[in-house]
């Protein structure tokens, strides 16, 4: 398996380790996704910069629902700008609009953090962003960013079957991820 950078590989390995005990969960890397538009399997491809491959894809997190988590890993030399969050929101939205009996959630993880404007796009598109951005420039270490991702994936796999309908509303998934990675008192 080829990874574009260390962040992709590390996130993939974290997700794989966490969901290994979850039976019906698969983790895939750089998968081409198909939509269910008009009851036909049709491929949606995204071209141009930045590329929009799915870095980590969690499949079948529930026996009764097809719930997918699409994660985009950004390992830039500086903080991730809003365009990447906006574009990932568009990708997740397209799949939700064309889904039949499937639900997609999205997360953008950036090893260097995010710039101003990312939080707005993330809340509008109900995306999680790791590390969080609340108008402050905090220099998170690489290891802390990975621990935040691990904490989010752990909680996600435990609660998604019970709360996916609630998290699908408005910006509830954004706030779920935000609370998880900023509040150590939040029970995982």
Task: Compose a concise summary of this entry.
The chain contains 5 helices and 7 strands; from the N terminus they run αβββββαβαβαα. Strand 2 and strand 3 (42-43) form a beta hairpin. With 188 residues, the chain is α/β, with parallel strands linked by helices.
What is the percent of helical residues? 25-40%
Number of strands: 7
The overall pLDDT, averaged over residues, is 79
This entry's quaternary arrangement is: single chain
The parts where pLDDT drops under 50 for at least 5 residues are none
Q: Which of globular, elongated, flat, extended, rod-shaped describes the shape? A: globular
Gap between N and C termini, in Å?
30 Å
Based on CA atoms alone, the radius of gyration comes out at 15 Å
Secondary-structure element series? HEEEEEHEHEHH
The appropriate CATH architecture is 3-Layer(aba) Sandwich
CATH topology: Trna Endonuclease, Chain: A, domain 1
Biggest beta-sheet profile = 5 strands, mixed
Structural class: alpha/beta
Q: What percentage of amino acids are in beta strands?
A: 15-25%
